[in-house]
Design goal:
307 residues; alpha/beta; six-stranded mixed sheet; 16% strand; globular
Length: 307
């Protein structure tokens, strides 16, 4: 399936929910709603909403009364804030979440007059000292560059960052300035932990992927982009890469099982979706189980200090 949540929503709308999709990276909680649950869309990553309860409990434990949520002006960001507020109410926690948005295209660092600068200036003026960031690796680098200029990176401020943003954006991190790297070193990184180790055979299979393999496919597709072995090694560290591998694996397992039952016909959309929902296997990203909604079920949640 498509990479981003908005792309999945667009594709599902065109297909009128008649074509199954399985994605390893579209984590936006805006993918599902009571009006449009999209039962034919599955994903091997947890929904962003799954992080909400843990973030609320952490904030309450740390005594953070208000968290500034810095996010792009997208449905993914706004529904994430809504999820945080709903979880705080459900848990009876006295934690508030103040959204501050920036333009999704704002990725230029040190642009104090731009939307990221305006959002960070508003956070500073409001006296918020804890910043929860939701966006891409490029946007994070820009935010930390501007935050450093405004004196909002380092002592006196806490940045909460999703671990996979950093793992999934090695190119952006490689060219980041010392101030950005310093900000990352002091940040709190959050994300899901898997209690089971990835399947050894699948991990070895991923480890054998080389830049030559990838470049051959890029060449065949007519793309001019080329990868190095260092690029591949960095990408394979990311959870989304492994979750995408598991999405393909889940589809293959489901087809194999359905064909074993009856090779005389092609399985229906509903049969394929039901078979994938019922899978439980050890994948490259750990144990893979899907919820009734079709999202990756979660095992544990962890937080660590950046380095």
């Amino acid at each position: 399936g498509p990479h981003c949540t908005d792309e999945v929503l667009a594709a599902a709308a065109i297909a009128n929910d008649m074509v199954p999709f399985i994605t390893g990276s579209a984590s936006g909680s805006n993918l599902r709603s009571p009006e449009a649950p999209l039962p034919s869309v599955l994903r091997t990553v947890p929904s962003d909403r799954s992080h909400a309860a843990a973030i609320v409990l952490l904030s309450a434990k740390m005594g953070w009364g208000t968290l500034a949520v810095l996010h792009a002006d997208s449905a993914r960001g706004s529904t994430f804030v809504t999820g945080l507020r709903e979880e705080a109410f459900r848990l009876g926690a006295s934690v508030a979440f103040a959204p501050h948005t920036f333009l999704g295209s704002a990725i230029q660092g040190n642009d104090l007059s731009g939307s990221i600068g305006a959002a960070l200036a508003a956070i500073r003026s409001a006296g918020n000292r804890v910043v929860l960031f939701m966006g891409t690796a490029q946007q994070l680098v820009a935010a930390l560059e501007v935050g450093s200029e405004l004196g909002m990176v380092g002592s006196g401020y806490v940045w909460l960052l999703e671990r996979d943003i950093i793992r999934g954006g090695p190119e952006a991190m490689a060219v980041a300035s010392p101030s950005v790297r310093g900000g990352l070193a002091g940040a709190l990184l959050w994300g899901f932990e898997q209690s089971d180790e990835p399947a050894p055979a699948l991990a070895k299979g991923l480890a054998r992927v080389s830049a030559g393999d990838v470049n051959q496919m890029l060449s065949a597709a007519g793309a001019e982009l080329r990868a190095t072995d260092a690029d591949i090694a960095e990408a394979l560290c990311g959870t989304q890469c492994r979750a995408t591998f598991d999405a393909v694996w889940a589809l293959g397992l489901a087809w194999t099982r359905l064909l074993a039952l009856d090779r005389s016909r092609c399985a229906s959309r509903l049969e394929l979706v039901d078979e994938m929902r019922g899978l439980s296997f050890m994948g490259a990203s750990g144990r893979v189980n899907l919820t009734q909604e079709g999202d990756r079920s979660t095992v544990g949640w962890g937080i660590s200090r950046g380095s």
